[in-house]
From TrEMBL:
Pfam families: Glyco_transf_N (PF26168), UDPGT (PF00201). GO terms for cellular component: cytoplasm. It comes from Helianthus annuus. This is Glycosyltransferase. Its EC number is 2.4.1.-. The lineage of its organism: Eukaryota, Viridiplantae, Streptophyta, Embryophyta, Tracheophyta. Belongs to the UDP-glycosyltransferase family. Residues 15-48 form the Glycosyltransferase N-terminal domain.
Amino acid sequence: MLKIMEVEKKYEGHVVVLPYPSQGHINPLLQFAKRLASKGLKATIATTHYTLSSITSPLVTVEPISDGFDDGGFAQVRSEELFLESFKTNGSRTLTQLIKKHQATKNPITCVVYDSFLPWALDVAKENGILGGPFFTNSAAVTAIFSRIHGGELKLPLRLEDCPVVIPGVPPMNLEDLPSFLNAPESYPAYLRMKLNQFSNLDKADWIFSNTFQSLEHEVVKGMGKQWPAKLIGPMVPSAYLDGRIEGDKGYGASLWKPLDEDCAKWLETKPSNSVVYISFGSMVSLTQQEMEEIAWGLQDSGCYFLWVVKDSERHKLPKAFLDLTTQNQEKGMIVSWCNQLEMLAHDSVGCFLTHCGWNSTLEGLSLGVPMVGVPKWADQLTDAKFIKDVWCVGVRVKVDNVTGMVNREEVVLCLNEVMDEGKRSLEIKKNAGKWKELAKEAISEGGSSDRAIDEFVMSLKGT
């Protein structure tokens, strides 16, 4: 009986958390939902029918809403325009139904925290008389750039002669440091529109949340001032790798793929400390065959141990001779179709993360203190790579060939050696990586800046 009363008492507010239905957006929003639940709120993830079965967490309830493509999600339509329009129409309708369903229960929904890509969710919240706020899944620096474009202070397309672009709190940015399509806005019109729409009704939001932390991007947030009064609540990385305050929180609890961890872990156990390069380009990046070949032979020529995550659909792009080498003898390197990235980065054997510089991967690298080699390909990855190299000084960035626009094997070797050897630059990078690991942990630990920001939100909801 006592246990039941304790469970009832826990729920002093009910938050619905609505992610954009892709892995890189589900993970941080689900992690935020778990944080809220650990602090006494009832947290429900509202996700599309297609992604529903991929999300499990003992702390969080999962309920379906519709994007209009319940059998296959985005893959069913393959058009950003159609998908986003359908999600707005069907998502608004089914989110309203979800809110109304809970109205008569002991735990009516009091707030919607939604992915900033889905501003229509705030309209739904307001129409139903409840609170709402967006969750920005990019860095504050990237948000600052798009905020200025939305406000008309930066005009598109950006050209070489417009650079460096100077934004308060952000280092001077050249074209190669800015989101890739700002100089060719017509290349991804739906994506650009989605980025700008994040700010369309921001003035009506009760809160703004950002997956970053005070010491990491203090200057950027200060430079944005009152136009973006965000609560910095990151890094949204599972608790086991930071403060350890959420019991059993070793993974995000969402996977659209099946991880293959056991073989990776066994292989890593055979390698010396800080000797392995871990390579992953995330779920969205697709390299050309030539790029895959150059990176493959760069890894081979570097002499480093390596573990490379290559999706099954990309495996055919690897050189046959390279594949033969790694399958016949896994002493030097291993190729897997998927693995638990957090476990890899936390492993003592891993000394370097060769990454596409997506924001989640960047935060994981920072939180786990792993030096990085950035190979950014598009969108916000270029800005993240700039900060990794020049602001936080936790890694290097590959230089691409002026003619092909791609990385070559010599550059891969050069960058890996710069991070992995014991030279002055390497030692400085490793020292900075250790510093940011501690600052990330401090931010989310009890009394830290992010923890206080989350507590303020929780207390304001408990008072409603």
